[in-house]
Amino acid sequence: MHHFYKPLALKIAFGVLGSLLLLQAPVSHAVAEPIPIASFFKESQFHDARLSPDGKNIAMIMKGANDRMVLAVLEVGQLRPEIIANYEDKDVRSFHWINNDRLVYDLTDLQYKDVQRFFGPGLYAVNKDRSKRLRLVTHQYTGARTKVVGNELPWDTHFLDIAHGSASPDIFVTQSAGAGARDLYRLNTMTGNTEVTPRPGKVSRWLIDKNGMPRIAVTTAEEKSVIYYKDPKKDAWRTLATSEWASYDRITPVFFSPEGDLYVRANNGKDLSSLYRFDLEKNQLDAEPVISLKGYDFEGQLIYNQSEKKVLGMRYEMSRPATIWFDESIAAKQKQVDALMPDTFNALHFPSDLKTNIALVYSYSDVAPGSWQLFNFSTGKLVRLGTSKPEIKPEQMAEKEMLSYTARDGMQIPVNLTLPKNSTGKNLPAVVLIHGGPYARGNHWGFNAQVQFLASRGYAVIEPDYRGSLGYGLKHFQAGLKQWGLSMQDDIADAAKWAASKGYVDPKRVCIAGADYGGYASLMGLIKDPDIFRCGIVWAGITDINLLYDTHLIEVSDQFKWFGMPVLIGDQVKDAAQLKATSPLENAGKLTRPLLMAHGKHDNRVPLEHGTKFYKAVKEKNANVEWVEYAEEGHSFYLLKNNIDFWGRVEKFLEQNIGKGQPLAASDASK
């Protein structure tokens, strides 16, 4: 049964433009200090909070001693949390409640995150009173022939799910089995003992049902993707669906309902993906979707309550995130919270025991970083637990609007537009900020430190979700195949033209910027459209397509795994001429505009060679190129000192090349 659903077609349209007055202060007057760079790029002070299943305790990741993130537990009704996991040289990265008394967590090192490339996150379990701590997974990188001492599992073992038993100390973890396959283990967090689940092939993805049983396995073999189902009637795996590995209409398992129904994401012959029920008896999708989102692919999750054994609602994302509740009493509670905080998206998280009448509320918006509060529905009181960036004042930030424009071939391209706070909203200097991936959705309604920093300095920020980006249907994605430097690039140029035609920006004061693929597109924008882009900022940028084929890519998107670079970008033999023509390195001599380049020395996704080769080639004919290399960084910049240095350089570079926007003063919060 799936009585809690009704087929839905949802449409949400939001967005309000903010504005900021661009007036040059008289020379005789003192200019107020702008919001410090550090305020935008500091590590989060508070990272996560979750209620225990019974709702009596809250576990949270917060800033502790030595600027390290610690795991703490607060008893509901008390004021002081008790730290249960803290380390002098590591930070708690993530955690999960296993049951009412026990938690599992892993670690990272935020102060040297990418440099320690062979430091695994490990995995620990501990009771809420700090007792019975056990390390389950080693941090130490181990080769295939290296034996792990004791009961600890190898470093490439990761948490998947809990066992969903009220008092069970067990969890499920997956472990690399080579060639993209992952083994599944049921792990007892009190003893460290494991039980392996026999897999029906080279399983790349597992799905556990709400009774704590492995129920779905997705395998790959000989360019085929197969979804297997563990049939409880025969206690054996059987095939549900088979598709080509690089199919545009793959089925992705999402959720196994309490009633034994499988829900999947699929296109089912349509442009946009939707959520469907998969009939396990007929081995086929239902004819009609459970939910479709107008203009967007389905991206969301079902909200399940263990004690009630039912799905309470669903979270999904369109232009903004949203929640729909199938339970009327909880829908009323959502309205009660939203009435108190109407300007943020408020995600309610309930304990398994709904009678406790409390909820953890995670709130954020385009101008407000994440904050966590505890709400008591009986008293109507909110208790603040923590905020990720307490120095950020939402009233000082610039609002973001999702719009669209028409590309030169008629395709509609989604775009995020952020105008500086208190500006006229007209004739502004601007930065076209290009998302990486490129096969990802770039635009999300939430706080973006880079965007807000640029807007705080008086620049309009334009973020196009050019063709090839995900989230807007197959047509939008497929239109970007083999279009690096071609129609994908034209979409970016057309974004700048659109913003100028609408009067938002001064067409003579537009800069282009981005990292990874965004760095590639920024270089190509300067090479291909120097009349549109007066300067460029590139960090961790791809500078040569052929060099990508010589790099061992890690953490690549599903699209790279499914389709492969020859399909997505181009075949090195068949498309050799095109790859040469659209390679920034091959065309470095044509780049004459000012350029700021930065790269992390330990970047193992886009290796340093991309940056050094291009810098050497471009500076032969272009003296206006600045290069900076960060010895401690990898693909992203994590250390605060390096972010302050880099974005300080960005600020000066923009002032020199497209003029200074009027910055919003740190004290100017009320306007």
UniProtKB/TrEMBL annotation:
InterPro entries assigned to the protein according to its UniProt record, in alphabetical order: AB_hydrolase_fold, Peptidase_S9_cat
Keywords for this protein: Hydrolase, Signal
Superkingdom of the organism of origin: Bacteria
Cleaved signal peptide residues: 1-30
Residue ranges crossing the lipid bilayer per the database entry: none
Coiled-coil stretches: none
Keyword presence, Iron-sulfur: no
Domain annotation Peptidase S9 prolyl oligopeptidase catalytic: ranges: 445-660
Ubl conjugation listed as a keyword: no
Name of this chain's protein: S9 family peptidase
Species per Swiss-Prot/TrEMBL record: Undibacterium umbellatum
Lineage: Bacteria, Pseudomonadati, Pseudomonadota, Betaproteobacteria, Burkholderiales
